[in-house]
Amino acid sequence: MIKKIILAAIICYTSLTVFGQSFSTAVEKNGALHVEKGRVVNQNGIPPQLRGISFSWSIWQGQKYYNPAVVDWLSADFKVSIIRAAMAVQPENGYLQQPLMQQKLITTVIDRAIKNGIYVLIDWHDHNSNLHIAQSKQFFTAMAQKYNGVPNVIYEIWNEPERVTWDTVKNYSVQVITAIRKYDANNLIIVGSPHWDQDVDIVAGDPITGFNNIAYSFHFYASDPSHQAALRAKADKAIKSGLPLFITEWGVGEANGNGVFNMEENKTWLNWMEDNKLSWTNWNITDKEETTAILQPNAPQNGGWTDGQLTSAGKYIREKLRRLNK
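User: That's the sequence. What structure does it adopt?
Assistant: Structure tokens below.
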């Protein structure tokens, strides 16, 4: 009981002061996000540089952390300004098999993020979305009807297209964006790019037109040997071309979620994101024995994690969030 009272007090009294004004939440500070002159910006026309954490797939080990208490803890203790709800689509027990259960799971997290005054990415966590267009349109239509005009909500309509062309991703995206815009005219929509959200330089040559407030996801794994200067150069080219980017997923380890945790490479990537004022969510909230997992095995399901219940990645990301989001 004492712990709950302390947590509530932290949430209520944490504030930010900007230009002499006091804001109690990230959304009060930034308002509705939009795209302006090739950048994602806030209500004042300034890049908000949101920073937070992605939930894991909403199945397997990560599912148990999809609850309001975890969102409260991330807001109060980790100081996140954004979270990502990664709704599993294709694997067993994902949305294709259990749409009502998955939708309920996701909206529980979304609603708590809204209550905490932080942003939330509604992530269609699928590698083969072009095969599931009807289901995606159905899901995002329901989300747009429920959350239209709520400034906290950002739609991420395809997590990491794999070995498909930009034409395939673009065709899918236009159909889903059209479904969303029927009910939500303005909330930010994040579009995927080929090759696991890496080929943003290709997208920059032929972006989606005819819709407002469209940005594009860019993913990297900071310690992966193939995710270094050449990959940053792709993003730099896209930014220079005026393509608005959003880092909806990055990890401290390698692309398979495991591998080494290279501090120097992580520092380079973090500095790059800061220099470009890019918003990001780090992968991921799970207790799986993996480099990018932020929790040790059997960490409590309701937050309140001690330092000993965090992995090296968890301690690192918590420290960065608390320092950068203060």
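The domain at 26-324 is CATH 3.20.20.80 (TIM Barrel).
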